[in-house]
Amino acid sequence: MFEELGEKLDSAVSKIKGYGTLTEDNIGDVLREVRLALLEADVNYKVVKEFTNNVKEKALGEEVKKSLKPDEVFLKILKDELLELLGTDEIKIETKHNPNMLMLVGLQGSGKTTTIGKLANFLRKKYNKKPLLVAADIYRPAAIDQLKTIGKTLNIPVFEEGKKNPVEIVKDSVKYAQENKLDYILVDTAGRLQIDEKLMDELKNINEAVKMHEVLLVLDAMIGQDAINVINGFNDKLPLTGVILTKLDGDTRGGVALSARHLTNVPIKFVGVSEKLDGLELFDAERMTQRILGMGDMMGLIEKAEGIMNEEESLDAFKKMKKGKYDLEDFLKQFNQIKKLGPMENLIKMLPGAKKMGLTNIQIDPKDMARLEAIVLSMTPEERRNPDIIKASRKERIAKGCGQNVQAVNKLLTQFEQSKKMMKMMSNGNMKLPF
Amino acid sequence: MGFFSKLKEKFSKKEVFKDDKQKDRYDKGLEKTRKEFSDKLNKLNKKYQKVNPEYFEELEEMLIMSDIGVNTVINFMDRLVDRVKKEKIEDPELLREVIVDELFIIYVNNEVLTNKINYSEEGPTVLLFVGVNGVGKTTTIAKIAKQEKDKKKKVLLVAGDTFRAGAIEQLKEWGDRLKVDVVTSEENSDPASVVYKGIEKAKNEKYDVVLVDTAGRLQNKLNLMKELEKINKVIVNLIGHEVNETLLVIDATTGQNGISQAKAFKEITNVTGIVLTKLDGTAKGGIVLAIKEDVNIPVKFIGLGEKPEDLEYFDIEKYIYGLFKEMM
Fold it and tell me: Which of A42, A73, A133, B104 is most buried, taking the most CB atoms under 10 A from its CB?
């Protein structure tokens, strides 16, 4: 996400470097680029206008004139203004009630049903809540089946009563939750247009029957200039407590993120970043800004790793490394942990400076990773523990076992030796970084 | 005579629409789009007695707000400013016709466009539906299945979305409702294999039209795009010619990302047309102009509502009529 926007803003900033100083005359070109970059990212037209005016005013201020590095000051101005747009309020989600009531609403196809699974998973993990999924989409064929499948995958209960009136279903679900000591109710509703009076009234009725603590609008990040009408349309009918942006893992430029908060005052609470059921993150304006401007998102990376990496296993591997006993079994374990972090592309993009190194457009075929894994899996446990014994005939057998050639096996073994050496150096503390 | 005046004449004779019912559907479906656009244009023309730079700036804003695409709008504005200079137009009222004219030129670009399905003369006609997640592929298939069935065609649905939870059930339920056969497989199985099974069945049992559903995929997911390439190959091998129609389904609320979707899917498959869905809700759908200009894929169908008959063959004349009705 945001790559193109980031690149274009980058090119605008580097223009200033060429100018040396910013003047009333030359700032026009720079601002034009900023403006186009934002418009192409689907940022709302009015927001773009305001944004460029603010940036212009600040950029022509005293500070920039005095500065020897006007491009850096300009970048700082961009960052501050972006942050301002995204809103700096702390993102909170209601968890103190018993049960907590939450409802997801949105247009057709915005990703409500998938998101509700992710959200339940998130609440269970982060707040230790016992969620209940409620199937109140009685219109779309197989919507209930879809929710049931998700519930089964996550091992989270699903409440459904077929095609009964949604208001009744939701009321009954509260009783069910209380009886079964479930403390977080998440209601999946049918997709609807914000101008559909009848269906909008249905949402209003649900909300009036059971006072919802959270009403979250699920919005596809690929939405264009209509975003504002959609948010306002829903918000007028029932007060939204937040927005969830989905499909941010596409190559969308996500301009809606920059306009929504500013124009509607409804905060973005979550962003969906992968199709997997753990692909939902709390929205963080600071980090989002840094990502847009290519400053990396180390916090996000660390948080992701913390959620998945098994501390004991990592420590174990580290100890082995120190003793020089790190073997292919550990390699395989770590490999699997990294795999759990999600697509490599996403991880690389979070590294600071990834954009400058041209890493953001890297595409990694998951099959390549699977091929590496297959090689290790075709070895006997003994070979994995003691790779030195792998000679020509063993290599041939392994190659046959995983359906690849001997060169591929050789390549993996070399890679393993190299990483082992590097780890040893690092753990001995005499690692000299190449930069 | 400009396009606009021709159109005006044509509509006054009412020869464009089959019947009043069809005209109503266009009228109603595009109501929101039209309201936004022509209301604003009317206001703009009232505000400015003379065409000046502020007028152009506001017009540009209007077009960008319709998601027409930044580059398309900028080129359009350049041409418009040129024409205004050359033809010495001062009255904004006169500019209306020029605006509609220029928009039409973007879309048509001197080509003969067809919105008809390219049916096979022999063997089944295969329609492949592709697109990102949540655009309405399955619903579109159901609508087209109904229309083809009403034409007395023997229709087969293939549930090629084996990934999304509930997708197979969704298509099955449509099959039950429409009384149309559906070929399915287990969830999470290889989609290419169910497609193979479906096309084989269609050939052996002499189905006329095969509608192939696929999983929604974001265009930057390499492995999913490869999977689509494989599905495409399987069909081509079995029927011995290009897939009759590969229809890219796009949500009308989509912004600039629509251009990137069209480019990416066209690279992998032979996209022959676009189905623009959910046009009844959005104020926009302008992205189709940018897609036509940038990627040269025409729109074949538009979805104007939830009922099967609300899926219409796209007709640029009717579309522009829907947009500018109040101005005629």
Answer: A42
